[in-house]
Amino acid sequence: MPNPTPPLAIVTGASSGVGLYATKALIAQGWHVIMACRDLPKAQAAADGLNLPQRGYEIAHLDLGSQDSVRAFHAGFRASGRALDALVCNAAVYLPLLKQPARSPEGYEISVATNYLGHFLLCHLMLDDLQMSAAPRLITLGTVTANSEEFGGKVPIPAPADLGDFQGLTAGFKAPVAMIDAKAFKAGKAYKDSKLCTMMMSRELHARFHDSTGIVFNTLYPGCVADTPLFRNAPPLFQKIFPWFQKNITKGYVSQPLSGERVAQVVADPAFADSGLHWSWGNRQRIGRAAFSQGLSPKATDAARSRQLYDLSRGLVGL
Question: How many CB atoms lie within 10 A of CB 309?
Answer without folding.
Answer: 22
